[in-house]
Amino acid sequence: MTRLRLARRFAAAGVFVSILFFSFWALDYKFNFFPSPTGNYVSSRHYEPPASRALVQRLNFILCPPLVIMVVGMDLGVSANLLLATVVVIMNGASYFILGLLVGPLWGKFFQRSR
Q: Residue 44 domain-assigned?
């Protein structure tokens, strides 16, 4: 596999990961996959989110680092957030492309030794 082809596959994976996380959080906002108790039942001092939700949040920032940009547009509105989400998806694809370019030579060396 050529270096550029591998980089393109990494970029496609980066775009897919970003879109997957954005769609997951949009659906979570609507369907509440991680039900949390209301203020009537649990005091705020002792509440911890479910471990699965905390894991997904950590993975979100590890696998999609440009997501930090979304903090800027938290209260800007739907259209601005959609624009920022598009920028984040493009930046994540570009960062995964660069990662693919860096992994390409190592990938080639690994498969040359295994043959």
A: no
